[in-house]
Batch of 4 targets.
Target 1
Amino acid sequence: MTTANPYANRTAKHFDGIRFDEALIQKYNRQGPRYTSYPTALEFLPIADDAEAKILSTRDDSVPLSLYLHIPFCRHLCYYCGCNKIITKKNSDAGDYLDYLFKEIRHKKSYLKGMPLVKQLHLGGGTPTFLSDDELAALWQFLHDEFNFADDGDYSIEIDPRELRPNTLSLLKDLGFNRLSFGVQDLDHKVQIAVNRVQSLELIEQVMTTAQALGYRSTNIDLIYGLPHQSIESMNNTIRQIVRLSPDRLSVFNYAHLPERFAAQKRIREADLPSPVDKLTMFGNIIKALGEAGYQYIGIDHFAKPNDSMAIAQRNGELHRNFQGYAILGECDLLGFGVSAISQIGQHILQNPTALGDYQAVVAQDKLPAIKHIQSDSKDELRRHVIMNLLCHDYMDFGDLRERFGIEPTSYFADEIASLHDMAADGLVSIDEHGISILSKGRILGRNVAMVFDEYLGKKHANRFSRVI
């Protein structure tokens, strides 16, 4: 007998509630994973030669697909960026890349049965709008020739306002994209110069106005706090202007300065970065301003209007996390295409080569491109379920775990529950006979709660992750 979803209807009051306690944040602020998967990508191992073909050919074809296409090209180098990107001004690079992308898609598709149903699509990068309008249209048509797209699917693209032609937004809407995401990061001109991403408020406002007029279902804006020359006052001004523009979703990222890992960050002077105290104050002010503007705190660094599909999915207990972050359609298998792209099929996670030359070489040889692989087991599945529900719904339901996994949670996780006692004493979580709830003071520290249930975390070097806040 299947019970009602225990993660639904946690009350609108719960999801509106978030308390910013600076002392507790400083106490618990440590480095940790973002949990776009569990196990995390640090567990990747080299893949066997025939493994990807077997995984694709034995996939449960009743499970719909989410497609991710990585377009790595950017015309400008943003100094803060840690993404897999290639800086170029050669338009021909995009056309050459699409040839390899089409070949990879055809090859993977040959192992799938029939015309698989696609319910979600995301073009990321890099800068997908580096592609010309004609190339975007050709890519969309190619995908529709290979797959069956749901009429009510979620189809999104990352755009760079500086890389839009006059008709790009209307073309994307006509093709079928219904969600946009783009980076603003900060509106202060001095900050923009320091990170080499200069774009005026007028340009951002024009993009938002056009997108809203065209009827896009949802528009997301990315902001970053902790950038060089940011101040509490300048960040307050940026968030006021962004609230006025009224995006449907906001992603507010903590800048992690890791120049030893990301070469572009070497161009940022550490002396120009705000102090940890000011940085924390910025985040607190952002939370307060967005709460007063009516945004629902989703988790980690995401906010959404209460009528946005992401906020609704959270209140209905249907929110998920994958390699694109929070997602409303978690029942899909994820197929990734392009350099560095990650796929998640059943219990398998696979990654393509991260260097463009390596990716092109393997595709040119008519080989499936995955070079890294994780296969989770039943223990991983249990812990993934716990971690994802803590991060998506702030709750771990003991009855759900008994029914779904056949365990007694209080004994199976006895050590983990014991290790949460300090957080419980500090009012971050509550533990009772029904489960574990993350409370309003603990919501922005949800990753800390999730980390308690991560069996792999102690085996890895902490400096591989950014700080929680």
Note: The longest helix spans residues 92-109.
Target 2
Amino acid sequence: MQEVYSKLWGKNSKGENIFIYTLENKYLKVEILNLGALIKKIEVKTKNKGNKNVVISYERIEDYEKNPAYIGAIIGRNSGRIKNGLLKIEDKEFCLEKNNGNNNLHGGINSISHKIWEVEIKKDRLSCKIKSAHLENGFPGNVEINVDYILKDNELILEYHAKTDIKTYINLTNHSYFNLSADDKLIYDDILEINADKLIKIDKDSLPYELMDLKNTIFDFRQTKKIQDFFKTEDEQKRLANNGIDHAYILNQSEKSPIIIYNEKSGIKMEVKTDNPAVVVYTANYFEDIGLKKHSGICFETQEAPNLFENENLNIRPFFTDSNHDYKRYTKLIFSEIE
């Protein structure tokens, strides 16, 4: 049996109503806000160890209203950084809002992650919708974005859909920070596997710019290992990410789940499946700046290769959406218990 319901949480500083929408069955309880269409809670119901919320959450509306780390939010129109805030589409150039040094980050200031979405409760899902006007934060096209949250047994499915009236660039993701530990410690004891042979190196401004083979590097998670093993060794790319991971992994195309993470003490396991070609893995390297514990969560930002990255050998190139070709992506989070 599945329940879908809502309740008024309160008002933000603008006097707008903030609602908590809940999807719940015998496996999971998921809370979504109409602010940023963000995930407030994913509670995994275990057989013998009680219920565990596996995402970093705030307890106050004002924290979600500010939300500098985009905790739980839908990110767009762009995920990650675009160098110099410059978007080139055919023979036209669009100057995007620069909100991260000289670059555009996560769509700019007051992007869709910090706005109120329209949410419709349906039988098997929450349908979250928002419109972004032509040249909002510099992005071309009048765009309608729809993100559906679907609960199916032990799976939480995110379906992304967007359509535009003129050719534009759209790259959406969710920015939830996961921590599967039994006692809310740091992520070091979580065990991670990523089915990827390469990632994109970053420069001093955290801009992705060049492919790197993962063989014989600390970033190689093709064989499962504790996240703490990564932090035991110094590395220049690790240093550039403020002593962590903030890199786009290029996912291998196979039937195997591209991402698996679990914690032996809590017994909780999560698999991530997606039709996106890349995932930015981010280990909350700047959480101390917002009063939270550094490395207390890990993001899996499934998306297009960031920074409009191109590579002909791996067939990586930006995907542009137009009036005849909608943007469609999905990400599936599958939760289970290990023995």
Note: The radius of gyration is 19 Å.
Target 3
Amino acid sequence: MRTMLSSIGAAALVLLCAGFSQAASLRVAPTSLEMIAPDSAAVLNLHNDAKRPINVQVRVFRWTQVDGVERLEPTSDVVASPPSTKLGGGADYVVRVLRVGKAPVRTEESYRVVVDELPDPSRRQAGTVTLVLRYSIPVFFRSPDASTPNVSFSLSRAGGGLILKARNDGDSRLRLSNITLNQGAKKLGSRSGLVGYVLGGASMQWPIGSGKSLSGSSVTLKAQSDFGPFDAKVAVQDR
């Protein structure tokens, strides 16, 4: 099992050598996929912005969260077809994502489809930088009977900072963005944009704010989710 690298994020850039840059060319849509059983297939749309052909690789990983750490593991239960292609200049291409596992979806299964634009060795030049795009697309297969997210939050100190922990006792994931922690009128910390997911039946944690600003036990969280904005109480640990 592999710890999920921080570079495996939507449109992560990989620097291969130093110097002048050559722009990457690949675009992928949509940015996430969800299928409700019995649906088992969806498509990703690839587009090459460049005039030259590019080589693309598509891989699927089972996505889990263990003790607050995200992990990716190779799987044969979900496949991408085709797993690789040469995409002509300005061309569009469709990749099918298909669940082939025979076991029924009981709650919600989570995967990541990782799409890489591969470097072209014939175009590499001394003293240049090649920027290669990597997309990591969340893919969910959900039972219609899966329960909604049921997430509780807690806060603890670690190394002078604060760690926000989220535990999801529901079956379905919760997507978190634009988090702010407040204690009364005092702002303890915040994170803009996408913070991450907490998968069903799993727990996650993220650094946020300074431990020096924490006092007492009444902390509230404001955030955005798949269901819109929400507020939540946050339990304080290790005061």
Note: DSSP finds no helices and 20 strands in the chain.
Target 4
Amino acid sequence: MLDSPAVRPARYLDADDFRRYTPVHIVWEITLACDLKCLHCGSRAGHRRPDELSTDECLQVIDSLAALGTREVTLIGGEAYLRKDWTRLIRAIREHGIYCAVQTGGRNLTPAKLQAAVDAGLNGVGVSLDGLAPLHDMLRNVPGSFDKASDALRRARAAGLAVSVNTQIGAATMADLPQLMEHIIELGASHWQIQLTVAMGNAVDNDQLLLQPYRLIELMPLLARLYREGRERGLLMTVGNNIGYYGPYERLWRGFGDERVHWTGCAAGQTVMALEADGTVKGCPSLATVGFSGGNVRDMKLEDIWRYSEGMHFGRLRSVDDLWGYCRGCYYNDVCRGGCTWTSHSLLGKPGNNPYCHYRALELHKRGLRERIVKLQDAGPASFAVGRFDLVTEEIDTGKVVGQISRNGQVIELAWKNRGKPSPETGTPPATLALCRGCEQYIQPHEQACPHCGADVAAAAADYRRDEMRRQEIVDNLRRLLGLDA
């Protein structure tokens, strides 16, 4: 654990952040203008919104974020650099002592634009690379975009910025991941964030790009292998909120080596907040505007939207009773709460049942079953519009369909049991699970026998400690023999 506040990353969360509902990390779409034409873009970026915030309005937002205790702001678009005053906003954010990063496709992040951002105090740049050049250029729908993105990252690193790569994983991505990691290491990135492409906006139009849920069985071991290999070579893989949840690899990536850290549910509206370019406020940048908007900074103070708006508070009010389908009866239901709200709502029209779960895919596989998605309805033309998908459960060997959401008549709606109630004045820090050392899967702290592998939890822990002591003795002996302790 990082115990000294002076060395903590800006997004590092402590219990007080949850109790006080501190909006630690803000993702801010400062314009919807974009110079790429991505086939999987959830916001359908391209043209500016009709009524984007003025410079003065943005500066007021920055003052409000500082007052709320925000520690990191990520500027996105579209493309943030297509807004003329983007470096002025960076400077204002940094004047408040807030860490500022930009997420970009990098197509026209010229040396002059990059230098202006560095001079304004920019801390970091995240560049999107969704595969090797042929796949990336196809997805971004602009020839040469891979080379432009790679060049932007190289120049950002040379300028002394913290540099990272973001990769969306779709149906065609897995084959590229090992070589893509080699390229990312060569570029000098320190972090590589992975997330799944979600059924929203352009991705609904191009649903062949979406990974089928049952392919998590292939994906997760690959990511675990690349995580270990990357860590040994100075590249830290971080997983987005729709990667996981639980299963044998959950302990690897969320805590960056601290196994006490695991997925604890959607943080939208609790420690995360987002703004759209016209001043609309949401709990997460990826959530649909309709149904998840908490209001607009032109109509209410940002502080009041955060504290009092019902649209912001679903994450604070939702309970296990809001889960449905497989997630309702899952072992992890009270901690996980259905995984990523964006993923499940965009896919099925209602949060609380998320088929993109590794633990779920493994459990179904044990029963000879798998899940796949089938598009039923296109998404509308608006930003963050969602369509409608069927979730089919079928036998792996025969293909026989044993369950469908559409056939079951599931009511699709945005609602939660405690909707209409005020947000609790004090938040609750997330629950902490224990690890079974027999199978390396998380379990409830009270368990005596592991529900996953059947091991005696205490005995497995004792064996693990003994093995750790033996390994440490071997290392210590080698160090002495090599004279490394002198």
Note: The first helix runs from residue 15 to 19.
